[in-house]
Design brief:
The chain is an alpha/beta fold. The chain is 19% helix and 30% strand. It has 2 domains: 36-222, 3-Layer(aba) Sandwich (Collagenase (Catalytic Domain)), CATH 3.40.390.10; 242-343, Immunoglobulin-like, CATH 2.60.40. It is built from 5 helices and 13 strands. Helix 2 crosses helix 4 (146-161). The termini are far apart. It binds zinc ion (ZN). Zinc ion (ZN) binds at residues 1, 156, 160, 166.
Length: 344
């Protein structure tokens, strides 16, 4: 939390800081580690890092000690936290109901005081009133509108709840602000003046937005967000199709016939003779509609004269049905000197 009001800050420094935060400070020593290649598991107070499940996701329960009539305010907190830490890293904040006896995770007390966490990371796991948030701001001044105040503070406090100390506490990141609270020890990123955890940020709590190093840092600690696998549809619908079967039969007085059939762009050829008097071919379509066809034939008759045939037309096919059609002669085209053909 960066204070908007200096006098409040001084009051706070005297009372709060000198009590338990000093204990934290003495308990945690600073070490300087900015080497990204060695960052994994280095020193971020292993004890205060929440554990990941076997899928690599860190699931943290969140509950409200005294939810009261603060539906909107609680929703703002949830939104802000999920949209920042919960979106950047592989962390899932769950629950958000009313705390019960023995509730684990982050237990939030709504109180009109100075927002804070009573420890870092898992130090507050299951701790009653482990985090305090202010929704009314009578005893704590905030220079933004209510929603902004609640969201900006929530992002900062949840940074603590994830184990992050104040950025300006770092001995490589000192600024005009007094170090406050426990140090993290594990400097996951270079000193970050834009951190939501840095009081020296000219934008208070970075206006509720994670800085680039905030993202990088939390991802180094908890891993990058894994996109949940999209569930496959229970049963993948087979695409509906239709099969059109066409039969060419050797006619009376015919000894040999060749057919070329273009059906909607797909081509099949037929051949029948006295040894094989019937030929069957199929076309499969996956869309209902009209299909144009063109058919050419060449037929030799028992008197050894050969005649050609030609025809075109269209056939409507629905999907999910099967059709059987035959090649038929529909008459003699005297102008062209060939048989008119069709599918029926
Ligand atoms: Zn803080």
């Amino acid at each position: 939390m960066k204070f908007m009001d200096l006098s409040l800050k001084i009051v706070f420094m005297k009372t709060f800081l000198t009590t338990f935060f000093m204990a934290l400070l003495s308990a945690i020593s600073f070490t300087q580690t900015i080497d990204f290649s060695q960052v994994n598991g280095v020193n971020m107070q292993r004890k205060s890092k929440w554990t990941q499940n076997s899928s690599g996701v860190t699931i943290i329960d969140v509950c409200w000690e005294n939810p009261g009539n603060f539906g909107s305010e609680r929703a703002w907190v949830e939104q802000a936290v999920k949209a920042t830490w919960g979106e950047a890293a592989n962390i899932e904040f769950r629950g958000w109901g009313t705390c019960g006896y023995g509730s684990k995770g982050i237990r939030i007390r709504i109180k009109d005081g100075h927002p804070h966490c009573k420890g870092l990371g898992t130090q507050i796991d299951g701790m009653p009133d482990g985090m305090e948030l202010n929704f009314t701001f009578r005893n704590f001044q905030c220079g933004y509108n209510l929603e902004q105040c609640i969201k900006f503070i929530a992002v900062h406090e949840f940074g603590h709840a994830l184990g992050l100390a104040h950025e300006h506490n770092r001995d490589d990141c000192l600024c005009g602000e007094e170090p406050q609270g426990g140090g993290g020890g594990w400097f996951v990123t270079p000193c970050d003046p834009n951190s939501v955890m840095n009081y020296c940020n000219p934008n208070w709590n970075n206006l509720g937005q994670l800085s680039g190093y905030d993202r990088k840092g939390i991802q180094t600690i908890y891993g990058q967000k894994t996109v949940p696998k999209k569930r496959q549809p229970e049963e993948r619908k087979k695409p509906a199709t239709s099969t059109l079967t066409i039969t060419d039969v050797l006619g009376k007085d015919q000894v040999w016939e060749n057919i070329y059939l273009d059906f909607g762009g797909a081509v099949q050829t037929f051949h029948v003779n006295s040894q094989m008097t019937e030929d069957k071919k199929s076309f499969t379509v996956s869309e209902a509609g009209y299909y144009n066809y063109k058919v050419y034939s060449s037929t030799t008759y028992s008197n050894w004269s050969t005649y050609n045939g030609y025809g075109e037309g269209r056939v409507y096919l629905d999907v999910g049905k099967n059709y059987v059609l035959g090649l038929v002669i529909k008459g003699w085209n005297s102008d062209g000197g060939y048989y008119n053909l069709g599918l029926e």
